[in-house]
Write a structure and sequence with these properties.
Length: 1424
């Protein structure tokens, strides 16, 4: 049967939990599955109120709701069956399920619903069943134990188990202590047993013999004692009690069976009466039969029979009355007994709990209070349930309770969500703090590493340079340190790889950094290239203004500037501002307050986008959107919007064009049509879009992007905002709420509003690096920023989260008021959507604000200086008032600026009028103006197109070559400085190591010491022996002196070899070649500049530029190679070389003289050679400088002479033409033609006249009267000549001053190099002399010690050591063995008074060991 039920429940009914045959009692004990089963068949409508919990209240609720349904099906079900199922009695759940199976299958076959079965039931039976249901619930509550009682029982059981465990632990500890004591006693007894073991053995043997002789007699049985009698009585009582208990149990079971059988047939009120009548009938039958049998034989009279019957009736009635009284008494006693038992159990429980600790007592008291409170709540619930008579009110109350529970649960969930958001925010804040800490730590770590590297680098170079580090190196290291570059070389870049790795890239960056630094100092003549105070007058002149003007003009022609678009025009608003801040910082609240109080238009980008989309959906036309009534203003605003739209980026405009594509659309304007009026598409929708207002068109583009799920680009947002600003009345200011949010939006809005792009730079600004034009147009004046004021509502992240948490309660309150007021329904929905959206995005928006705000803060505070911070964590009214004061203050400032501008403008307009009135009457002759000065007016005649196309690339090539060559030369000079430092440090170290080479002095000293110690002792006192020994010492001294002299000569030869290895001349030659290359670079720059000016001015005169016949000047370099290598290549080289190592006659003379002095002193030779070579180098540098200066002067002179010769030829040709013109008579037409010819030739001849003209020459050239045009051309030619020569003179002076500075630096570099080398050579000489003197001193000390030992006739016991410059006698090494010592006599110890000797103590110890080997003798005696 169980398998059939399982198959039915699992496959047909398909309960939520699968059931197996052995789990019926456990699975159906809660009643939940029974309710689900009935719900599946449509009989249990209140199944949603069932609970799956196993607590007593849940079970009571489930089985109370099951009882009416089971009775409706006709299934036998009462409180006893429910109790059996709840307690898990075996077979109870199976029996009920079987009955349900039969009833439900019957219902399914009859196709009856629950409503039909309820309707078919009679009204009387239904009412009776409802009464029985109420009684059933009350009985079930009494039978079901309460959850509090179960919990108390669990607590008491827990504490009992705990107390038993404590008692067991104490018992175990007590037993362990007893075992320890017992073990000690057994050990003590073991010793006594060992002593008496022999005696006990004897006694045992005697006792065994005696027992063997004795006859065993059985003992009599023990007599009955009082204890045995009492035990028997106790057992008898226990048996009687058990029998009584069994009878009572049997009686209770029979009563329960009879009650269940009768209950199924009769109602609850007739159960007791039926039981009583049944029992009474049985008893009367028995009595009547008994009395009838007893008295039938005696009496047979009818009266007697009637009396008997009457008596029997009386007895029956009396017995019934007694039975009723007895049952009432028994019921009362049973109730009293149960109350006493309950009270007793409570007292016992309280007593058990009171025996525990104070904490357990408090728990017991609290549990009793809880129990009492639950009892009170139960009574109140019963009383409240009795008050509700109608089911409608009950259901309504339950609905309200459900709503309250849902609201409470929602509140709890919301609080949990807030807590999670706070935890997430704290985690994000911790990550940000860690990121900042890591960044700060990495920066500090990098700085510390750089400081350490700099310190170690300085320490290394202090060792290399004898604590004299060059200033140039310190400046280079400082440059590395400030730019964050490593001090030490990361990788080698020689040779330069094609694809460098990161370390090589770092080294290249370091190299470029030093190159730029050195080139900047050289170009500006500062730092290392700053002229000395003596030659400060020869500092190069300032910028060549004429050359700068020429180059700027050529650049503007070759690189024409882009046409600048006119900035958009907006009316002067009283205030332009924005309010920024985090989410929930109060931006919208402050904006609404300012809009009401200050009459300022508040613009929200989100609202503007929604309005634009609504305008598109409503098909807003152009005429509908005109806010300003005047036609001119409206047209002007539309044009401005069109301009703004035309400047928007291609992405937005392409999207707009996809909405309104037309054939004639230009740029990015979405509403422009073809000029001819022909549209590309004939769709009616395109016509409608073209007629829409600008706002509607922008809304169309926004809607299209939003429908695709894309975000609106910044450019489109700014166009929408500008359209709203255009529609704002000029008398009202405007404030943007929460915009811009990123730095890109701020820059785009600045560009769109002011027309100035903050990121654009002048293209031609970086193309001229050598010269500049002081009259070049400066940057446009800085206009006022787009925002007059930018207010930041500063608030912490914690405050934002608190405001978000408080927003939920405000939303609930607003929802309650909105239910009362239906007009605000749409606002409530919008508010709820915003709250939900903000709650979901709060952490993301806070983090995005923290990411973007630093750049925005720099933009508003540094670039525009409009940022004002306001603490937004104070009260709302204070924040609004503070923002209002800031806005009003800014409005007042703007009004003051306008007033001051209106006052100043009339004066400016009058200034040009006064100058025109005052200048003409003053007949003062103007002073001569220097070309290139501020008053000079440059000649800007038109140039042929080919001239800029050739000259601009030519000059760019000149600049590039000039910069790269100088950087390369300066880099080589830096490398030379490093190589000098390393070479001098290397030769110092090598020479010191050479001086420390070992020699043979120690071997000779050791040999002499061994010979000296080998002499017999009896011969040491002999005078002849002493004399011989003294002679040997003298020979040793001479030998050691010879060794020292040889070492000194070898060291001097090493020093001479180092000095004569040719390193110093080679370094000087290389350094001078570098400086000569610098001079060549300056001369090349001058030649290129001269050629550019020459071609430019000739082209401006209209002449063809001539080819420069003169070759470029080449400054010769020093040939530092041998003659054999040079002669073969002498003809193929472009740069001339000067022989430098070949000895000149003067040098031969100085060398021949120095050869004689070389035999006297090497020091004099070195000093004379150094002076001679330095003088030669100085002469070479001076001669080369003079050559360069002369070449520059000659080029200027040749240019002036060629210009004058050209003018002289033109003058002669002009005179010849004038003579021919005066002698011949021509017709009017021919004269006109000749006049035209003269006009053509006269400008050319006039422009060729350059140089300072004299009045005599002018008179000679033009004896005849000249036309005004010829005079004007003559003046132009003279001005060009003056300007050209002035520029040449300026370049000549600048080049000569730079050449002078290069000469000074070359002389200083060569002198410093020579001084460092000479200093190193002098240090070598000093080390050599001190070494020789120290060696001689140590030899003298050795000889003195040797003579002392000879005179004292003693051997030298320890080894004599002579190492390098040190002499000492080593006491660790003995040369002769020590004498043998006499044997030691042992000391005999004597005993004093009261003391024992060591031998006596040893004897006493041996005796103690014999008496007590283990040392327990005294201990055992004391134990006994």
């Amino acid at each position: 049967m169980s398998e059939i039920l399982c198959e039915w429940l699992n496959e047909e009914v398909k309960l939520s939990r699968s059931v197996v045959p052995g789990s019926f009692s456990e699975e159906f004990s809660t009643g939940y599955l029974l309710g689900e089963l009935l719900h599946k068949y449509g009989l249990q409508d209140d199944f949603n109120q069932f609970s799956q919990s196993r607590v007593a209240n849940a079970k009571l609720n489930n089985f109370s709701r099951l009882e009416p349904t089971l009775h409706l099906l006709g299934v036998q079900f009462n409180e006893n069956v429910a109790q059996d199922i709840m307690t898990g009695q075996h077979g109870a759940a199976t029996k009920l399920l079987y009955e349900l199976y039969i009833a439900l299958e019957k219902k399914r076959k009859e196709k009856l619903t629950g409503v039909a079965m309820e309707a078919m039931r009679p009204a009387a039976t239904a009412k009776l069943k409802s009464i029985e249901s109420v009684l059933y619930r009350e009985r079930l509550k009494t039978l079901t134990p309460r959850q509090a009682d179960l919990q108390l029982q669990q607590i008491s059981d827990h504490f009992e188990i705990k107390s038993k465990a404590v008692e067991d632990k104490i018992a175990r500890i007590h037993i362990a202590e007893q075992q320890k004591v017992q073990k000690l006693q057994e050990e003590q007894k073991a010793q006594d047993i060992e002593k008496h073991r022999i005696g006990r053995r004897r006694q045992n043997e005697i006792m065994a013999r005696i027992q063997a002789a004795i006859i065993q007699i059985p003992k009599p049985p023990p007599s009955h004692t009082m204890k045995a009698i009492e035990a028997k009585q106790l057992l008898k009582k226990k048996r009687e009690a058990e029998d009584t208990y069994k009878n009572i149990k049997k009686f209770e079971k029979s009563l329960a069976g009879n009650a269940s059988a009768v209950h199924s047939q009769v109602t609850g009120s007739n159960i007791k009466e039926s039981l009583q009548t049944q029992k009474l009938q049985e008893t009367t039958r028995e009595i009547t039969t008994q009395t009838a049998t007893e008295l039938l034989g005696i009496y047979s009279d009818d009266d007697y029979i009637r009396k008997i019957q009457k008596r029997l009736e009386e007895d029956t009635f009396a017995r019934e009355q007694r039975e009723k009284r007895r049952r009432k008494m028994l019921m009362a006693q049973l109730i009293a007994h149960e109350a006493e038992e309950e009270a007793y159990r409570e007292e016992q429980l309280i007593y058990r709990l009171m025996r525990q600790s104070q904490q357990e007592r408090r728990i017991a008291v609290q549990l009793m209070h809880v129990r009492h409170e639950k009892e009170v709540l139960r009574q109140n619930r019963i009383f409240r349930e009795k008050q509700y008579e109608e089911r409608r009110l009950k259901e309504f109350q339950e609905a309200l309770d459900r709503e309250a529970a849902l609201a409470k649960q929602e509140k709890i969930d919301y609080e949990e969500q807030i807590i999670k958001e706070r935890e997430c925010h704290e985690k994000i804040a911790i990550e940000r703090a860690q990121a900042r800490y890591k960044k700060h730590y990495s920066v500090c770590w990098e700085v510390m590493n750089q400081i350490i590297d700099l310190s170690t680098k300085v320490g290394e170079y202090r060792l290399l340079t004898n604590n004299r580090i060059p200033l140039k190196l310190m400046l280079d290291w400082k440059e590395f340190f400030f730019n964050g570059k490593p001090m030490y070389e990361q990788a080698s870049i020689q040779p330069l790889p094609n694809e460098p790795n990161p370390e090589q890239l770092v080294e290249l960056n370091k190299l470029n950094l030093l190159d730029e630094k050195d080139y900047g100092e050289y170009k500006s003549m500062t730092g290392e290239w700053c002229p000395t105070e003596e030659n400060s007058e020869n500092k190069p002149p300032l910028n060549n203004n004429i050359l700068g003007h020429v180059l700027r003009r050529l650049m503007e022609i070759f690189y024409p500037p882009k046409p600048k678009s006119s900035p958009p025009l907006f009316p002067p608003f009283p205030i332009k501002g924005c309010i920024l801040g985090k989410l929930f910082s109060g931006k919208t609240t402050c904006a609404k307050f300012i809009e009401k109080v200050c009459n300022i238009q508040v613009l929200s980008v989100d609202t503007l986008v929604q309005e634009a989309i609504q305008a598109f959906l409503k098909n807003e036309m152009k005429s509908e959107h005109n806010v300003i009534p005047q036609e001119a203003e409206s047209s002007r605003e539309k044009n401005e919007v069109q301009k703004n739209l035309s400047k928007s980026p291609p992405k937005v405009l392409n999207k707009l064009q996809t909405e309104t594509p037309t054939n004639g659309a230009k740029g990015n304007c979405p509403v422009k049509k073809d000029p001819s009026g022909q549209e590309f598409l004939s769709d009616s929708s395109q016509d409608g879009l073209s007629k829409l207002s600008v706002r509607a068109q922008l809304g169309a583009a926004s809607q299209k992007l939003l429908k695709k799920g894309k975000s609106i680009p910044d450019e489109l947002l700014i166009d929408i905002l500008l359209e709203a600003i255009n529609q704002t009345p000029p008398e009202k200011g405007w404030i943007v709420d929460g915009f811009p949010m990123t730095i890109n939006q701020a820059k785009l809005f600045e560009k769109a509003y002011t027309g100035i792009d903050p990121e654009t730079k002048d293209e031609n600004s970086g193309k001229l690096s050598l010269v500049t034009d002081p009259r070049a147009p400066n940057k446009p004046p800085v206009t006022s920023p787009a925002f007059d004021v930018s207010v930041l509502l500063d608030i912490s992240d914690t405050a934002v989260l608190k405001r978000l948490a408080n927003l939920k309660s405000n939303k609930l309150k607003s929802s309650q008021t909105e239910q009362e007021n239906n007009n605000k329904n749409s606002d409530a929905e919008i508010l709820e959507e915003k709250i939900n959206l903000a709650r979901d995005q709060v952490l993301h928006r806070i983090s995005s604000f923290l990411d973007t705000w630093p750049k925005l803060e720099k933009w508003f505070s540094v670039h525009q200086s409009t940022l004002v911070k306001v603490n937004a964590e104070t009260e709302e009214s204070l924040v609004c008032e503070t923002v209002k004061e800031i806005i009003m203050e800014e409005i007042a400032k703007n009004q003051n600026r306008k007033g001051s501008a209106q006052e100043i403008s009339p004066g400016k307009k009058l200034l040009p009028v006064t100058r025109q009135d005052l200048l003409p009457p003053i007949p003062v002759s103007p002073l001569p103006i220097d070309p290139g000065s501020d008053e000079w007016i440059y000649v800007d005649e038109p140039l042929p197109k080919e001239i800029p196309d050739f000259l601009v690339p030519y000059w760019e090539m000149v600049e590039h070559a000039y910069m790269n060559t100088i950087k390369t030369i300066l880099r080589c000079l830096r490398d030379e400085q490093h190589s000098v430092i390393y070479y001098l440090a290397d030769i110092r170290k090598k020479f010191q190591d050479y001086l420390k080479h070992p020699d043979l002095k120690q071997e000779f000293v050791s040999q002499w010491q061994s010979d000296y110690n080998s002499i017999a002792d009896d011969l040491r006192e002999d005078e002849e022996t002493k004399a011989e020994l003294h002679q040997r010492v003298t020979d040793l001294r001479d030998l050691l002196w010879d060794i020292c002299d040889n070492r000194r000569e070898e060291a001097e030869q090493e020093r001479t070899d180092i000095m004569n290895d040719g390193w110093l001349p080679d370094r000087r030659g290389i350094a001078m070649n570098h400086f000569f290359s610098l001079m060549q670079v300056e001369v090349d720059r001058f030649q290129d500049t001269k050629r550019l000016l020459h071609d430019y001015y000739r082209a401006m005169e209209g002449k063809i530029p001539t080819e420069d016949i003169q070759d470029f000047t080449r400054i010769p370099l020093l040939d530092i190679f041998y003659v054999e290598q040079k002669e073969d290549q002498n003809k193929s080289r472009r740069i001339p070389l000067v022989s430098w190592k070949l000895p000149s006659p003067e040098i031969n003379i100085t060398k021949s003289k120095s050869k004689g002095t070389l035999q006297k002193s090497a020091k004099d030779e070195n000093s004379e050679n150094g002076v001679a070579t330095f003088g030669k180098d100085e002469n070479l540098i001076t001669d080369t400088w003079q050559t360069a200066v002369t070449a520059v002067s000659n080029m200027v002179t040749a240019e002036i002479q060629s210009k004058e010769m050209e003018e002289e030829k033109e003058r002669q040709q002009l005179e010849l033409k004038e003579d021919l013109k005066s002698s011949q008579t021509l017709s009017g037409k021919a004269a006109g033609k000749d006049a035209k010819d003269t006009k053509k030739f006269s400008p050319k001849s006039a422009t060729k006249k350059k140089g300072p003209p004299s009045t005599a020459s002018v008179v000679e050239v033009s004896p005849a009267p000249m036309t005004p045009e010829e005079l004007k051309k003559r003046e132009l030619t003279l001005k060009i000549k003056q300007e050209y020569f002035s520029a040449l003179k300026h370049e000549e002076v600048a080049t000569k001053s730079r050449l002078e500075l290069i000469k000074e630096k070359a002389l200083a570099f060569v002198e410093d190099l020579t001084m460092k080398a000479e200093e190193a050579y002098k240090d070598m000489e000093k080390w050599l002399g001190s070494r020789f003197l120290a060696e001689m001193s140590s030899v003298e000390k050795l000889i003195e010690v040797a003579r002392h030992h000879i005179e004292s006739s003693s051997k030298i016991q320890y080894e004599i050591t002579l190492e390098e410059t040190d002499f000492f006698i080593s006491s660790d090494v003995k040369v002769i063995p020590d004498p043998v010592l006499s044997p030691h006599v042992p000391h005999i110890e004597t005993s004093g008074s009261g003391t024992l000797t060591i031998s006596q103590l040893n004897t006493l110890h041996k005796q103690f060991l014999q008496v007590a080997p283990k040392g327990f003798s005294l201990y055992q005696h004391s134990a006994k």
